[in-house]
Write a structure and sequence with these properties.
The protein is α/β, with parallel strands linked by helices. It folds into two domains: 161 residues, Rossmann fold (3-Layer(aba) Sandwich); 141 residues, Rossmann fold, CATH 3.40.50.2020. Helix content is 29%, strand content 26%. α2 links the parallel β4 and β5.
């Protein structure tokens, strides 16, 4: 007999947790998360979880450090309540961009977060389109690395756009672009990008590949300030591209990003709800697709002991 499946959520993205629970046909676990006047976080589990198979859904979003501490404290509370197994579901992984020591005297913070999660007692991780796949190697526990590429690509397949080319905004996203191009049965191109230090400013001057007179689909794992994506769209426009679209997994959309998107050459930006996208960050150009079915099916596979790779084939 399977242990009971129970889903809990911190305060980072309760709507996604609710959608995942609807996919699985279970209720969100009852818990209480508050902050005391001394700024200390407090978590209490308000139902029995003894011998349960527990999944905690908590992506990294503003305020990032509060969300991370909530996740760690909730994991500790659940472990002390005699659960059978605990899996952290972090669609957008905390500090995922700090994955290497590329400057003197800096932290590899993604590795630190991995250590914190393991010490807290997590036995498995589910994440989505990690900024750097090698983050999986920071863990000594299983990491199920899901991808939103099939879902995002399917959206553009249904649009039936002619004369398409998939464009990587830099060399680092070439593999992702190749996956899109294979699903859309079209060629790909790469923009030559240089970032100026730690600033959000980028320089894009050349395109490797033919984009002139073609409909272009920019792909990336994350959009933060929007500067890089808009610069890429401007570059494609300069090289005589036709309609320019973008598909991005994690819509951080910080600061003036929505306004930059609205006034850019982009015709449409398609993102997922891996992190919350509040109404004030949405506009007519931004389309949000739900990853709840993807995450829900992954949880179902893990709970039932079924291989995820047979369901989510990665190319």
């Amino acid at each position: 007999m399977l242990n009971a499946l129970q889903i809990f959520s911190g305060r980072a993205h309760p709507r996604l947790a609710k959608e995942v629970c609807e996919v699985l046909g279970v209720a969100v676990g009852r818990s209480e998360v508050i902050k005391f006047t001394n700024d200390n976080s407090f978590v209490r589990i308000n139902e029995s979880v003894r011998e349960a198979d527990v999944f905690v859904i908590q992506p990294s979003c503003y305020p990032v450090n509060d969300g991370l501490m909530e996740l760690l404290i909730m994991i500790d509370a659940l472990k002390r309540a005699s659960i059978k197994r605990i899996t952290a579901v972090v669609p957008y992984f905390p500090y995922s961009r700090s994955d290497k020591k590329d400057q003197p005297r800096i932290s590899i913070t993604a590795r630190l977060v991995a250590d914190l999660l393991e010490v807290a007692g997590v036995e498995r991780i589910i994440s989505l389109d990690l900024h750097a796949p090698q983050i999986q190697g920071f863990f000594s526990i299983p990491v199920d690395h899901l991808t939103a590429v099939p879902m995002l690509a399917s959206y553009f397949v249904d649009k039936k756009l002619d004369n398409m080319v998939v464009v990587a905004p830099d060399a680092g996203r070439a593999k992702m672009a190749r996956q899109f191009a294979k699903r859309l049965h079209c060629p790909m191109a790469i923009i030559d990008k240089r970032r100026l230090g730690n600033e959000e400013q980028v320089v894009m001057e050349n395109v490797i590949g033919d984009v002139g007179g073609k409909n272009c689909l920019l792909v990336d794992d994350e959009i933060s300030s929007g500067s890089s994506l808009v610069s890429a769209a401007n570059t494609l426009e300069k090289f005589k591209a036709l309609d320019i679209y973008a598909a991005v997994t994690h819509p951080i959309l910080s600061g003036m990003a929505p306004q930059r998107i609205a006034s850019s050459p982009l015709k449409e930006l398609v993102v997922t709800n891996s992190v919350p996208v509040p109404e004030e960050k949405r506009n007519a150009k931004i389309k949000v697709l739900s990853v709840a079915p993807l995450i829900g099916e992954a949880i179902r596979c893990i709970h039932n002991g079924v291989s995820i790779s047979t369901v989510f084939e990665k190319e």
